[in-house]
Each structure stands twice: as C-alpha cells, then as structure tokens.
Predict the 3D structure of the following.
Amino acid sequence: SWAFARSRRLPLPPGPQGTFWFGNEQILPWEHPWKEFVNWSKIFGPLIYLYAFGRDILIVNEASAATDLLETKSTLYARRPTWSMVALTGRQDNIAFMDHTDRQKKARVILQSAFNPKAQRSWGPVLEEETTSLMLQIAQSPELFKQHIRRYLGSFITRFTYGTKVEDHELKLGDEISLHTQQALRPGRWLADIVPLVLYLPDWFPGMAFKPWARDARTKFMEYTARPFRQARSSILDGTEMRGMVPDALSDIIAGTSKYKEEELISAASSIYTAAVETTYAVFMDFLILMMAHQDVQERAYREIMSVTESTRQPLLSDMAALPYVDAVIREVHRFNPVTPMIPRSPMETDSYKGYRIPQDTWVMFNIWAMTHDASIYRDPDEFMPERHLPLGHESSAKDPRDFTFGFGKRICPGMSLANLQMFIFVSQFLATFEIRPPLKEDGNEEEVVLEYTSSFVRFAAVLCTYYYVLLMTT
Ligand code: HEM
C-alpha cells in the first residue's frame, strides 16, 4: 500500500553510530541497561535505534510512545520477538512467547477468567489462609524466610492452576524451570539467537553444548507440566472433587460444554508458574528491602493496619479499602523498581511513527523503568515516597504505576488481578506481624541498607542475598 511504501523510505530513529561488523554490540550496556538508555535519551531523544546480534532494536523510553504503539496500534504490536531458545527449551506453547493467534487469545481468556470476580471470592479465603500460615512459618524460622516465601508462592499457584497439592521435589523442579526460562531469554547469551543456522549443526560440533542443555530443559519442562495435567484428567474421570483452573475447564471440555479446546488449556496452564512465581517473588523481596530502608514508611503503614484490626486479628482482603496508605506503599514499590523493567514486543509489519521507520520484526524494548522514573509523571522520581499516591498527596494522586508495570494492550499481564490481591494480603499481613530491620553490626548499630538490583530479565533486590534479617514479632 501507499502508506507502507512511504514508511519504507522514512529514516530509522536516531541512535549511536555502530561499526560495520558488530553494529552496536560492543557499546550495549549490560549493567542496568534501562538506566543507561535514559542517559542516551538526552542525546538521541525518547526513541533510540540500535543494531546488534543481527537484528534491529528500538528502545522506547517514553510512556506516550508506549501508549501510541501498544494501545492505539495494539494489533500491529501484539507479537513478541522470536527467541530461538524458546522452541528448543519446549516453551513454544507458552502464552508469553506465542504469536497473538486465536489459540493464544483463548488461552489468555482461560487464565483471566479463572480469576474473575466470582472466582476471586472463592480463592480469596484460600489466599488469606495460606498467607497467615506463611507468617507462622517465618515466625518459627525467620532465617529461612526466602525458602518459605518461594514455597508459599509455588504451592498457591500450583493449587490455583491444577487444584493439587505440591510436593517438595515438584517445587524444586518448578524453580529449576524458572531458571532455565530466564537463561533462555538472556539477550546475546546464545549463538543460536545470533546465527540461527547453527540450529542445523550436529551436537558434536564445537560450540553446540547449548543443544543438550536445551533438551534437558525441555524434558524437565514437559515432566513438570504433563504430570499434574494427567492427574487432573484422571481425577475428573474418577469423579473426584477438585477445584482449580485446569480441573474446572477440563471437566467442561470433557463434558463437551466448553468453547475451549484442551490444547488451549494446556497452553494456559503451562505458562503460569514462571510468569507468576518469579515476578511476584521479586516484588515481595523488593518490598522487604524497601521497608528495611524506610522505617518511617513501615511504621506509618503498621499504624494504619492497627487502626483497622486493633491488633486482634490479621488483615484480610476485605480491609483493602480501609488501608489507603498500604495501597500507596504497594504502588510505590512497583514504581520504584519495576521488576520487569523492559517489555519486548515486535511489529508484524514495517511501521512508521513520528516520521521514523520501524522495520518489521524489530525488537522494540519498552523501557518501563524510564516511564516510572519520568520526572514529568512522578516528581522527584528517585525518592521513595508512597504519599505521592494518596488522594491528598502532594501530586494529588500520581498515575497508578501498575498501568506501566503490568504491560499494555493486547498482551497486558493476564495475572494482574491475582498478583494485586496476593501482594496486598502479603504486604499487610507481613507488616502486621513483623518489624523488618537491618541486621546489627558488632558495635550494636544497625547495618546501612544498600539498595542494589540484578540486571536480569526479572530483576531482584540483589542485596538481600547477603543479608540476614532480624524479624521481630510485634503482635
Ligand atoms: C507482581 C507480579 C507480576 C508482574 C509485575 C507481572 C508483569 C508482567 C508483564 C510486564 C508482562 C508483559 C506484558 C506485556 O507484554 O505488555 C506479563 C505477562 C504475563 N504474565 Fe504477568 N506479572 C505478574 C504476575 C503474574 C501472575 C500472578 C501470572 C499468572 C497467574 C502472570 C502471568 C502472565 C502471563 C501468562 C503473561 C504473558 C501474557 C502474554 O504474552 O500475552 N503474571 N506480566
């Protein structure tokens, strides 16, 4: 078409000069690239074009451009870029990596409707109960708090997905699978992403060690997802009562009363564990480290909770509306350190935007960190200030950062409402139960809290790994 022909003549967006062979590979920042890209914007503007690892890359640092591309042109940008390791590690049917096909859309609907308002009413008490038992476990062995939290997240999500209780070895396998997914997604990590032809070379060829690694990752992934699905199927056929996304949807499919196919349900189910556990765990850890660093905030949130529960019980989901400061803390944790700081998408056709050409298949990286640290949206963005989100805060309630941190348009996170409820119940019960303080030094003073984060796809508060928490029961 005319518009297409015209867009092909447009220039690429500005960006740093690359070399003939390597493009911009050698100057790509590996440590906290989202921050470095904000600095680059001072020279090149909000859209930065790069060429690296044999592909076009576009960094988008501005919220209005994200809305224009991901919401106004939502269908054009509804695709993820392709990673060759996705198929090799068996993740090709994962909602997060599939093209936006009919099957993907239906799998998303299955997942979203498994946590619709009616389902929330039945899952709410389960979340409350499991969170309260997590608090007891942490109280009994606070030094193991990270293991307790991972176990709680893994076992709740398995129960929600398959309706089954989870065994320890399955949780271990789930965590191993999450690690494989993170490794498979690392940009520039794999030769196959840069030179796809190596996929056709035999295993014994030098440099092909990634193939057995990927096969092992794939086998483990199949083992992890196939068994609970089979178990749900035989329970339904046996007439055993089970509640969960898979048993609920599968019984309708088996009865012939569902508009979904079994393959769509398999896609939805096998996409959940890593997407849910890694992200939620990262936000929880971030909350803990930020509370340790901002004890005034912690104290204010604690007082608000006590004014509602009067120290007689744990906070419940029904208290949410009465705890606006706790809600503001949660929003600020998401804003201060978005756990998926860059969201990758790819246009299905060559596009034109603001007089520039965006070639088909470009890796368009939406820089969420840049958006939640944009001073024109959040004043003093490097300050941790929950009060900015209060209705009477100094900015009279800032934009909800979760409008950025859960993504946009057709591929917005389908687990968002579940994640928000779980975050609220975890944060409010944790604050009601414990005081989060840094460890003591030999001289009896508290250690200084240093905020440091990893540079991975889902970023973690790295400093936690070296800290021993002092957690005191206050009720
Ligand atoms: C605090 C926790 C979470 C955060 C910050 C988060 C964030 C995100 C983001 C940024 C995306 C990409 C969206 C886009 O491309 O526009 C995403 C996708 C996704 N999330 Fe979440 N998420 C969280 C929890 C969950 C949970 C609990 C589930 C499942 C129950 C889940 C399931 C998914 C799936 C399946 C996708 C892929 C969607 C697609 O590509 O169409 N997430 N999430």
Observations:
- Residues 95-96, 108, 271-272, 275-276, 279-280, 283, 339-340, 343, 405-408, 411-415, 418-419 surround protoporphyrin IX containing FE (CB under 6 Å).
